[in-house]
Amino acid sequence: MRIDLFRMERFQSLYWNEVEFDLSESGVMPLSVDELLEGDPRGATRLLATGLWYPLSEGSRQLRERIAAWYPGATAENVSVTNGGSEANHLTLWTLLRSKDRLAFMVPNYMQGWGLGRHYAAATDVFRLRMSGGRWALDLDELSKIVGKRTEVVMVCNPNNPTGSILSEEEMDAVVSVARKANAWLVADEIYRGAEVDTDAPAPTFWGRYDKVVVTSGLSKAFGMPGLRIGWVVGPPGFVEDLWVRHDYTTLTPGVLSDGLGAVAMQKRNRERILARTRGIIRKQLPAIERWIESQGDRLAYVRPQAGAIAYLRYRGGIGSTALAERLRTEQSVLVVPGEVFSMTKYIRIGYGYDPRKTLKGLERVGKVLETI
Question: Starting from the edge strand earliest in sequence, which strands make up the sheet with 300-302, in order?
């Protein structure tokens, strides 16, 4: 069976540790274990006493219960724990798609789902977010046209990567309506939920809006703990059982230390503390990024992100985004993500959730190249 090269992941994995300024990251500065265990004087002792045995393959009940508490009406039976959000997406689409099906997929997006739809199903059809009227708006006409009788899954990323946009309630209702009309599953990648720019309330979830909704997420982005490799799937119990069958063929279980630390992170008081930290980083560091964008004049167009430590920038110039990213890497030792890996041209994605001084120095170098194109 064919499998497409996952261009974004390959590009980042090749170069992120070879450049002086890595602006390709889409999360915030990761927590340390000390920070995670803050306020729990016995936490480190318990961690060091953990036996390195196999944990439950679906995740410990404590972790699953605490994840479920973030989704109104969900229980532990609705949750399966995976090794990161990427495995959650992979297992979900493997479970739902068959060779004659079609996947309807939002773009721009983290393109894992696009490739998996082409691998497990007959085809991936795309519907778009478009920059319009100072926001990223869902093309509802396009969505309605591409979802048909053979569409088995409609997949969205909300809050969105790379734009940082959040679907309005009206747009969410429209997505649910189209999926219900086609009797299709709705898969919502919500891994940036909790990293909102202007509100302390997490973005609305698709969970509970339709009986065929599956939500994927994890601790890598909004929670700032990518190294734990804890992801999850929230869905109907029967679907979770089917997904477990596939999980037995992949990573089997989460790591026992990651399961335990994930349960600490998802305890309500810690969850709120961690997400407040993430929002604080975003709100402190975004204004300097916006001043730099403004300094570029008409070279750049930009819609302010609503969530996530990412900015998606449209640039002017006679060069494709992959070629621009290569120039930045080779001439300036700066890594950005080209829009072409998100199925768009003349865009680049930059992350601003890490060291703010290094980010601004990297952007100075980006500006030098933009002046030449």
Answer: 300-302, 310-315, 347-351, 337-338
38-47, 56-65, 246-255, 353-362: range with lowest mean pLDDT: 38-47
Contacts with 307 (C-beta within 8 Å, 6 or more apart), sequence order: 159, 164, 165, 166, 192, 193, 195, 196, 197, 203, 222
> Is 41 inside any structural domain?
no
pTM for the model: 0.96
CB 201 within 8 A of CB 281: no
Domain boundary at 270, 291, 309, which? Answer: 270
Give the residue from 270, 297, 327 where a domain finishes. 270
Burial class (CB in 10 A: 0-12, 13-18, 19+), 13: exposed
The residues that bridge with 21 in the sheet, in sequence order, are 334
Alpha-carbon 40 to chain mean position = 29
Same domain, 142 and 19: no
Is residue 1's pLDDT more than 70? no
Q: What is the number of other CB atoms lying within 10 angstroms of the CB of residue 132?
A: 10
One domain, residues 242 and 330: no
Q: Is the domain of 21 the same as that of 158?
A: no
Q: DSSP for 55-92? A: --TT--HHHHHHHHTTSTT--GGGEEEEEHHHHHHHHH
List the CATH number of the domain containing 251: 3.40.640.10
Is residue 253 domain-shared with residue 147, that is, in the same domain?
yes
Tokens of 362: 């990297």
What letters, b where the CB count within 10 A reaches 16 and e where it falls short, cover 148-174? eeebbbbbbbbbbbbbbbbbeeebbeb
Q: Please state, in angstroms and rounded to a whole number, the distance separating the CA atoms of residues 302 and 297.
A: 11
Domain that holds residue 360: 7-32+271-370
* pLDDT at site 16: 85
Total domains in the fold of the chain? 2
- Tens digits of residue pLDDT in 344-356: 999 999 999 999 9
